[in-house]
Write the structure tokens for this entry.
Amino acid sequence: MQNSLVIFHVLVYCRKLYWADRGGQDVPQKIAVCNLDGTESRVLWTQSLHHVDELTMDVTGNRLFWANPGMRSVSIAFT
């Protein structure tokens, strides 16, 4: 079976690309980051995600926020 990446929200900040992947069969949901050229990819968050909606960055605090409407919450990760 072919794996696929389903990206719904993307944010570019300080030459980094942040995205929310809703996952799929046997692929967990996640929020990840990489350089604009695709190198140095890493997962930032995988816990308690349910249809992530919107990503935004606090540039002074270097924090990433996202809405998680499936859980009726707003979450935060330090980048």
The chain has no helices and seven strands. Residues 37 and 48 are 29 Å apart (CA to CA). The beta strands are 7-13, 16-21, 30-35, 42-45, 53-58, 63-68, 73-78.
